[in-house]
Amino acid sequence: MTITNKSSRNSKLLTAALIILWWSVWNYLHISIVRDAGIPYRQAALDGSVSTVLLAIACYFVVNIMRYYLPKDEKYLFVIIASLTLTTVWHFAVKVLLKSWYAHNSYYLRILEHTGGLRFSFGFLMIVCATVLAMLWYTQKEREEENLRKSDMERTAREAELNKLRQQLQPHFLFNSLNSISALTGTQPEKARHMIQQLADFLRGTLKSETQQWVTLSEDIEYLRLYLDIEKVRFGHRLQPNILCDDAAMHMKLPAMLLQPIVENAIKFGLYDTVGNVEISIRAASVNNQLQVTVCNPYDEATALPVQGTGFGLASTRRRLFLIFGRHDLLVVSKEAHQFTAAITIPQLKTTI
Asked: Which of 27, 115, 189, 216 is buried most, with the most CB atoms less than 10 Å from its CB?
């Protein structure tokens, strides 16, 4: 038996014990009041037991009504009408039973009649309390279930969007690579063949992590190197990646294929409007138990040409980080000293999803 099942069972047992204790105390008080009116103990005990058992049944009945029907706007009127109806039925049933058993005891019958209003008032009070408590309990349970359903729906939608973003990674990169291969086929067929081989190696590697949502930085860097090898075929010596990661950071985790769109963005804006060599700097470090990665590329806003693209890189990374962590501040971009820098912070989750 699991801990959850044991806890649920213990909670039910405790609730049952408290209910039994409550009705036992109520029965004792009822018997004591009837005894103070001069009724013998045997008659008082029967009076109290009958009244308490029937009242407990009435309260149980109204609690079950609340389980299957929760009044909304008319709840206060429902409480009053339901309580009055059940109290009337309970009071009538108690009087009929006690009168039939003590039909020849005139003194007891007089006491029964004289205490009718008091009995009805106490019974009404108990049923009202049971109705209100049951209504509050089941309303709270209904809200909890509704919140749980909303959470499940939001989580499902979030996972679906994350999956969609992840599924866009390979087609987006594949289209760019195929365009490059197409351009190289006529002028540099050897480079085109080499690029096709590199692309096949990259896709085989990424397919292995298709079911993984989180990977270590060392694994993501491995896929990133394959990607950069492909881009080197495309740009030749002009592309000069510089990857520097400290040992502690290499074992930290991040969402799979998170860095590739950022590096692709750096290559696009760093090389497309220049003819010389361009260094793409990738740095990773462990800071305060968080993985911090920065990707830098040269950028001159005065000479930069508009680049047509899908806008997938930074936007998709920012969206993925928000869906996973619920924060907008984990990706920060800056432009200074002719450098464009994308800084990513990855909190380390105790249990990754």
From this structure: 27
